[in-house]
């Protein structure tokens, strides 16, 4: 039967309405799921006996038999029915009943706001974007404008709660960190810092701040009509900033690199001036900061390492450290020659939401077609002025000296391992992350001939306001594997068996950790419960087993990205290494670090040991595969 045109039109309109209704329903559902309280369980308090059993297993490879016997006795006394452990466990359970997340406030303070060391090197990571090649100022400003535009596009998704939900298997993950990275700033204090989420306050910020030659400019990124500026308009604004800041000014921003107590005191002094206070408020309230840098200072010859160091510390007073405000959560860095990335203040979020933002920006830059309509009635970039008296000038000089020492101490080696990536590891039916963790363990043992306490961050975002738990990657099995690999007499089949056993042990611990049944956060809670109650800190926390197993000589994290990028950070301890990695299908990007002041560690040596470990691990698996075919 022939269908009339009017019928087809009516059906088409009806289908359109159904699709629109379906899309609207999906958006409503997505927004409901973004409301974590409606769907996510609360962070559990593990059973005390389970935590202590795991704890002893993680201590064993790091202490002597005599030391382990002492630790066992201390744990036995701590966990007795009427002992202090049971008392503190009850306090934790009570706290869990009366809070949405028993750890979150404690963690914010203990891990970040109470820490008085500089955020530079010791806390704030860098994230290096795929490296660009700029030949002209136009190239640099165009890219910077696209980064800004892409971030504002992402912000729209965040504001509308349409960011795709993160999942771990079938489990929806807590998305609250996504709402805390834009418009956020850490505020220095004399003994404890605070944090402000301006992006969640009624009067939402509508501006960014651009730094160039240590000058700061406020740029309104929305026109009078409420539309975001398009790329062409943003380039115009950036060019105006550059033209009005051709010579460096006093680097007030370098104060943010100081010890937090020192910066807290200088901050109080700086804010006494009305002009300074107004400028600081605009920086703190901005959606994010963009630093326009010149060429890399003191290049190492490795462009990846150069970009990483510039992201982490700006290459110090002689570089671009004064062209930053390190208290801001997100600071994009766009260098003159194409070194591009960001540094982020770690307090409100872990790496994945930040890497997700970067992926969105890179996709936006690659896929953006056509021109966005211009916003109406642009306002001229507003220079943020500072009145710097004698006291603040001295504070700036002191900050330069302190930072110079820190910059001189940190050394990094960043590289792309191109011989294989996730695909090969998966072809062996192994976990890529566990495989890479065992390569890091083997590299450490290869250099130092002993195991090292090893931190890997695990996400606990399956739970409301979850942050991280520690995967203690050093195990009896990982030590047995390292010994087998470095023993020429060990048969290949035994090496493969040791590798698989070590990977299974790591996978098992990682599974416990993501389900909030690790060791470290529970022990921290017990310790803080004692302190909060005015009790003595239990002997458990002063024992050699605890001290050695929590002195993380290896600080590691997997931060996957959809592009050729990598995150980087400094070591956790003076005689340790930092190692962050992004596994790709056929390569792995690594950012490694160590301190020059430690005679035991060197990041270039660690790179060599890590690459050799990866090759050796691949070789034993390939040999095992060939043998199986014969």
UniProtKB/TrEMBL annotation:
Cited InterPro entries: Carn_acyl_trans (IPR000542), CAT-like_dom_sf (IPR023213), Cho/carn_acyl_trans (IPR039551), Cho/carn_acyl_trans_2 (IPR042231)
Catalytic residues (positions): 346
Recorded superkingdom: Eukaryota
The Choline/carnitine acyltransferase domain, residue ranges: 43-612
GO CC, alphabetical: peroxisome
Keywords: Acyltransferase, Transferase
Molecular-function GO term, any one: carnitine O-acetyltransferase activity
Keyword Acyltransferase attributed: yes
Gene Ontology biological-process annotations: carnitine metabolic process, CoA-linked
Record-stated family: Belongs to the carnitine/choline acetyltransferase family.
Protein name: Choline/carnitine acyltransferase domain-containing protein
Organism listed in the record: Cherax quadricarinatus (Australian red claw crayfish)
């Amino acid at each position: 039967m022939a269908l009339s045109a009017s019928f087809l039109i009516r059906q088409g309109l009806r289908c359109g309405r159904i699709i629109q209704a379906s899309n609207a329903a999906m958006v409503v559902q997505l927004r409901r799921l973004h409301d974590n309280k409606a769907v996510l369980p609360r962070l559990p308090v593990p059973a005390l006996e389970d935590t202590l059993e795991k704890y002893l297993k993680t201590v064993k490879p790091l202490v002597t038999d005599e030391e382990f016997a002492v630790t066992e006795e201390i744990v036995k006394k701590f966990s007795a029915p009427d002992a202090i452990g049971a008392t503190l466990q009850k306090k934790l359970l009570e706290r869990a009943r009366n809070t949405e997340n028993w750890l979150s406030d404690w963690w914010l303070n203990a891990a970040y706001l109470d820490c008085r060391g500089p955020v530079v090197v010791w806390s704030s990571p860098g994230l290096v974007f795929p490296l660009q090649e700029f030949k002209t100022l136009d190239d640099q400003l165009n890219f910077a404008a696209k980064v800004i535009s892409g971030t504002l596009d992402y912000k729209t998704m965040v504001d509308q709660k349409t960011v795709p939900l993160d999942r771990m298997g079938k489990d929806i993950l807590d998305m609250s960190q996504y709402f805390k990275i834009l418009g956020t700033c850490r505020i220095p204090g004399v003994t404890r810092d605070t944090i402000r989420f301006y992006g969640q306050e009624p009067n939402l910020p509508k501006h960014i701040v651009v730094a160039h030659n240590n000058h700061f400019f406020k740029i309104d990124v929305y026109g009078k009509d409420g539309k975001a500026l398009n790329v062409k308009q943003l380039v115009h604004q950036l060019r105006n900033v550059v033209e009005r800041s051709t010579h460096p000014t006093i680097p007030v921003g370098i104060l943010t690199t100081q010890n937090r107590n020192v910066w807290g005191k200088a901050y109080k002094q700086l804010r006494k001036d009305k002009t300074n206070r107004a400028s600081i408020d605009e920086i703190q309230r901005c959606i994010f900061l963009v630093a326009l840098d010149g060429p890399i200072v003191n290049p190492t010859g490795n462009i990846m390492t150069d970009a990483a160091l510039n992201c982490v510390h700006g290459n110090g007073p002689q570089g671009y450290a004064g062209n930053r405000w390190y208290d801001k959560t997100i600071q994009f860095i766009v260098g003159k020659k194409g070194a591009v990335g960001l540094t982020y203040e770690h307090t409100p979020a872990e790496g994945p939401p930040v890497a997700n933002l970067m992926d969105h920006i890179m996709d936006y830059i690659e896929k953006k077609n056509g021109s966005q309509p211009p916003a109406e009635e642009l306002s001229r970039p507003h220079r943020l002025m500072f009145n710097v008296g004698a006291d603040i000038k001295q504070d700036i000089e002191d900050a330069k000296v302190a930072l110079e020492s820190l910059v001189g101490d940190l050394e990094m080696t960043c590289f792309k391992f191109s011989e294989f990536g996730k695909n090969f590891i998966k072809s062996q039916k192994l976990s890529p992350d566990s495989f890479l963790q065992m390569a890091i363990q083997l590299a450490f043992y290869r250099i130092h001939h002993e195991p090292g306490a090893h931190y890997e961050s695990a996400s606990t975002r399956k739970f409301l306001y979850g942050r991280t738990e520690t995967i203690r990657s050093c195990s009896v099995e990982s030590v047995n594997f390292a010994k087998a690999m470095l023993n020429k007499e060990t048969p290949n089949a035994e090496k493969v068996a040791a590798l698989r056993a070590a990977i299974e042990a790591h996978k098992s611990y990682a599974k416990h950790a993501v389900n909030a049944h690790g060791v470290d956060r529970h022990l921290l809670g017990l310790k803080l419960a004692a302190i909060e109650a005015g009790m003595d800190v239990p002997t458990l926390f002063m024992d050699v087993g605890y001290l050695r197993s929590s002195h993380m000589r290896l600080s590691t994290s997997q931060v996957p990205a959809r592009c050729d990028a990598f995150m980087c950070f400094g070591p956790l301890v003076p005689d340790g290494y930092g190692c962050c990695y992004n596994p790709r299908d056929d390569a792995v990007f690594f950012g490694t670090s160590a301190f020059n002041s430690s005679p035991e560690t060197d990041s270039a040596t660690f790179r060599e040991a890590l690459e050799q470990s990866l090759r050796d691990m691949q070789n034993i698996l390939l040999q095992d595969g060939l043998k199986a075919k014969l």
